[in-house]
């Protein structure tokens, strides 16, 4: 036996909490699973410690400190010179060592679930010098588990659902418990699951806690909720094991396994004939024990219906009967049709052999109401000629009481629609006549409202629009479409186009306008060519015009229409004589001042000018030159024309006309404001 080595004797309290085995060379191998090796103490070759680990049962309930084991060195001669020291986890608090004997005790009750192993260091010191006799060594104290913790579920109550009518063995949910005991040591943490409440509807897998359906054909409409109690027991479910429970609340979710059904297969609805189109007249309801989308239904009328329709109220799942065509008590009072109801969503598992639809008969009764008068037409369109005299016939409107007991009606015109009071109506027979003559050029249409009122019930009234179209009568003559600024060059040749004219007419003949233009055939200066498109060309009949001889021509143009009676008017086209270049471009058109001739005396000239002043002070036509009047001076007749369109206002012209040839003289140097003449004097009106 080697005597110069230190041997650590580990005396263990293993599986028996109240028993500690003293170390002897012969039993250390048994404690640690080591052979005796011929009675010699096993030791390490380079140090004096024998080491392994101590085992200590948790939850020691004795009054004394629990004995853990003994440390011993072969350098201890038993003379008290060796001192044992313990350091590490819990040293000096949880674990105490007798420094002389090396005995280790646990001072407190230990819980493996709090700490399963403690690591400590053992030292051997010389008591006198306090020097280490050997380097320290590490050893463990492992806490052995006892079954002191019951299984626990994470929740007291779990919630799960499974479709109704599920097959046996359908998984519902899995619930597992935790056991804080050591699952690697014994069966303290080996759990077995069982069902305490919820049979025969459900079962649980004993190993993994999976809950499954155990009964076929579970119907939500019969029973919807189940309370299942699951137990988890340790020690592999053996007698004496600890257990914990939890509750699983299982709800059967709905499937569409129930068709809709009418509680009554005949419905009666009553409505009044005045119900508006689109109005609801009643509701019908089918029952479906399913819920959610599985209970959604849609209603329809079998074969459709021309008067009624049915729609589905998505909130109440009712069928709403509505009007799609106006009702009339006098025409039809009773209706009957068949309604179908069916589920919107179907489950393929249940449609075989089961009709997910139902039928019911609906009878509708229409009740009479006092209805307002009804016009035979709506609206009325009437035509009348514009030359119709006051009191003339325009047209007739007619209304009747639609009720079974026909009541008389009276007629009137809403004067808010006839502010000018152009029309009247006979209150008894509805004949419309004119109060005034109509003018189409003022208004082509007159829109009035005629009111029919029940004589016995004035609250029952009906209005109808009457559109009166005023037909045209050819009562207006055509005239120039515009004012023309026409000139002819002095060097013009015969047949030269100098102006294209057109006309307008406020009348509207049915076949359109057709205007005819003409001038005097004896006119030596100009001619006209009708273009057959309501326009005409003015052409020169000769060449060689001279401003000195005649600086302006007045050409009367007669314009006629083709309607009946034919209307015509004469418009005067003023043609100025202008100096032009070789290309026909106008250069100047100012008339030259020429001395008076033809034997006019000063008195005659003054008389003519006075006539001009008087006539120019009168209202003038708005367009081309027109004759204002005539002045007789001596034996000669002078025509006075309004030339304000082409001549500055300060220029007054005295004209001498013979047939269609007119001569004028410029009187620019004469001031008309110096002339005073009695406006009532005779001046050839």
From TrEMBL:
<feature type="domain" description="Cadherin">
    <location>
        <begin position="376"/>
        <end position="480"/>
    </location>
</feature>
<feature type="domain" description="Cadherin">
    <location>
        <begin position="480"/>
        <end position="593"/>
    </location>
</feature>
<keyword id="KW-0812">Transmembrane</keyword>
<dbReference type="InterPro" id="IPR039808">
    <property type="entry name" value="Cadherin"/>
</dbReference>
<dbReference type="GO" id="GO:0016342">
    <property type="term" value="C:catenin complex"/>
</dbReference>
<feature type="signal peptide">
    <location>
        <begin position="1"/>
        <end position="20"/>
    </location>
</feature>
<dbReference type="GO" id="GO:0016339">
    <property type="term" value="P:calcium-dependent cell-cell adhesion via plasma membrane cell adhesion molecules"/>
</dbReference>
<dbReference type="InterPro" id="IPR015919">
    <property type="entry name" value="Cadherin-like_sf"/>
</dbReference>
<feature type="domain" description="Cadherin">
    <location>
        <begin position="73"/>
        <end position="153"/>
    </location>
</feature>
<keyword id="KW-0106">Calcium</keyword>
<keyword id="KW-1133">Transmembrane helix</keyword>
<dbReference type="GO" id="GO:0045296">
    <property type="term" value="F:cadherin binding"/>
</dbReference>
<feature type="domain" description="Cadherin">
    <location>
        <begin position="263"/>
        <end position="375"/>
    </location>
</feature>
<keyword id="KW-0165">Cleavage on pair of basic residues</keyword>
<dbReference type="GO" id="GO:0007156">
    <property type="term" value="P:homophilic cell adhesion via plasma membrane adhesion molecules"/>
</dbReference>
<keyword id="KW-0130">Cell adhesion</keyword>
<dbReference type="GO" id="GO:0034332">
    <property type="term" value="P:adherens junction organization"/>
</dbReference>
<dbReference type="GO" id="GO:0099560">
    <property type="term" value="P:synaptic membrane adhesion"/>
</dbReference>
<dbReference type="GO" id="GO:0044331">
    <property type="term" value="P:cell-cell adhesion mediated by cadherin"/>
</dbReference>
<keyword id="KW-0479">Metal-binding</keyword>
<dbReference type="GO" id="GO:0005509">
    <property type="term" value="F:calcium ion binding"/>
</dbReference>
<dbReference type="GO" id="GO:0008013">
    <property type="term" value="F:beta-catenin binding"/>
</dbReference>
<keyword id="KW-0677">Repeat</keyword>
<keyword id="KW-1003">Cell membrane</keyword>
<keyword id="KW-0472">Membrane</keyword>
<keyword id="KW-0325">Glycoprotein</keyword>
<dbReference type="GO" id="GO:0007043">
    <property type="term" value="P:cell-cell junction assembly"/>
</dbReference>
<keyword id="KW-0732">Signal</keyword>
<dbReference type="GO" id="GO:0016477">
    <property type="term" value="P:cell migration"/>
</dbReference>
<feature type="domain" description="Cadherin">
    <location>
        <begin position="154"/>
        <end position="262"/>
    </location>
</feature>
<protein>
    <recommendedName>
        <fullName>Cadherin domain-containing protein</fullName>
    </recommendedName>
</protein>
<dbReference type="InterPro" id="IPR020894">
    <property type="entry name" value="Cadherin_CS"/>
</dbReference>
<dbReference type="GO" id="GO:0000902">
    <property type="term" value="P:cell morphogenesis"/>
</dbReference>
<dbReference type="InterPro" id="IPR002126">
    <property type="entry name" value="Cadherin-like_dom"/>
</dbReference>
<dbReference type="Pfam" id="PF00028">
    <property type="entry name" value="Cadherin"/>
</dbReference>
<dbReference type="GO" id="GO:0005912">
    <property type="term" value="C:adherens junction"/>
</dbReference>
């Amino acid at each position: 036996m080697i005597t110069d080595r230190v041997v650590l004797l580990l005396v263990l309290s293993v599986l028996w909490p109240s028993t500690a085995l003293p170390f002897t060379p012969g039993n250390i191998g048994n404690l640690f699973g080591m052979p005796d090796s011929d009675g010699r103490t096993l030791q390490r070759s380079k140090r004096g410690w024998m080491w392994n680990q101590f085992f200590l049962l948790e939850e020691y309930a004795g009054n004394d400190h629990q004995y853990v084991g003994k440390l011993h060195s072969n350098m201890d001669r038993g003379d008290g010179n060796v001192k044992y020291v313990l350091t590490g986890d819990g040293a000096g608090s949880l674990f105490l060592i007798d420094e002389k004997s090396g005995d280790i005790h646990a001072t407190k009750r230990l819980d493996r679930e709090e700490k399963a192993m403690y690591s400590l260091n053992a030292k051997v010191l010389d008591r006198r010098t306090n020097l280490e006799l050997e380097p320290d060594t590490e050893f463990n104290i492992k806490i052995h588990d006892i079954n002191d913790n019951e299984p626990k579920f994470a929740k007291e109550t779990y919630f799960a659902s499974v479709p109704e009518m599920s097959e046996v063995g359908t998984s519902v949910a899995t619930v597992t418990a935790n056991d804080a005991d050591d699952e690697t040591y014994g069966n303290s943490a080996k759990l077995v699951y069982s069902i305490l409440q919820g049979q025969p509807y459900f079962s649980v897998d004993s190993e993994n806690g999976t809950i499954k359906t155990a009964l076929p054909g579970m119907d939500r409409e019969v029973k919807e909720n189940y309370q299942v109690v699951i137990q988890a027991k340790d020690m592999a479910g053996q007698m004496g094991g600890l257990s914990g429970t939890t509750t699983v609340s299982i709800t059967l979710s709905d499937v569409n396994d129930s068709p809709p059904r009418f509680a009554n297969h005949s419905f009666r609805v009553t409505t009044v004939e005045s119900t508006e189109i689109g109005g609801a007249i009643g509701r019908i309801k089918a029952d479906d024990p399913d819920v959610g989308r599985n209970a959604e239904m849609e209603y329809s009328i079998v074969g459709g219906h021309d008067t009624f329709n049915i729609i589905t109220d998505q909130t109440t799942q009712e069928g709403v009967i509505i009007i799609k065509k106006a009702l009339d008590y006098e025409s039809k009072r009773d209706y009957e049709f068949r309604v179908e109801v069916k589920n919107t969503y179907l489950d393929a598992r249940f449609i075989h052999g089961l009709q997910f639809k139902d039928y019911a008969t609906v009878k509708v009764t229409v009740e009479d109401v006092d209805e307002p008068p009804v016009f035979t037409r709506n609206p009325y369109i009437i035509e009348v000629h514009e030359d119709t005299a006051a009191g003339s016939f325009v047209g007739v409107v007619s209304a009747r009481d639609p009720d079974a007991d026909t009541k008389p009606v009276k007629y009137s015109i809403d004067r808010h629609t006839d502010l000018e009071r152009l029309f009247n109506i006979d209150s008894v027979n509805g004949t419309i006549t004119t109060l005034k003559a109509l003018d189409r050029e003022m208004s082509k249409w007159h829109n009035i409202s005629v009111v029919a009122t029940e004589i016995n019930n004035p609250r029952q009234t009906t209005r109808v629009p009457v559109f009166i179209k005023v037909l045209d009568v050819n009562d207006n003559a055509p005239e120039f479409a515009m004012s023309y600024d026409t000139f002819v060059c002095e060097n013009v040749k015969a047949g030269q186009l100098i102006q294209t004219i057109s006309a307008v007419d406020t009348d509207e003949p049915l076949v359109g306008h057709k205007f005819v233009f003409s001038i005097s055939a004896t006119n030596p200066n100009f001619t006209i060519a009708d273009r057959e498109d309501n326009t005409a060309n003015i052409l020169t009949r000769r060449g060689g015009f001279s401003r000195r001889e005649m600086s302006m021509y007045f050409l009367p143009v007669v314009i006629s229409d083709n309607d009946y009676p034919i209307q015509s008017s004469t418009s005067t086209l003023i043609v100025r004589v202008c100096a032009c270049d070789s290309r026909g471009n106008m250069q100047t058109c100012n008339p030259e001042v020429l001395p008076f001739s033809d034997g006019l005396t000063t008195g005659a000239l003054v008389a003519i000018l006075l006539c001009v002043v008087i006539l120019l002070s009168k209202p003038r036509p708005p367009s081309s030159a027109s004759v204002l009047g005539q002045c007789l001076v001596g034996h000669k007749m002078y025509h006075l024309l309004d030339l304000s369109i082409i001549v500055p206002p300060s220029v007054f012209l005295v004209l001498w006309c013979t047939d269609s040839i007119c001569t004028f003289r410029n009187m620019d140097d004469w001031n008309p404001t110096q002339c005073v003449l009695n406006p009532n004097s005779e001046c050839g009106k």
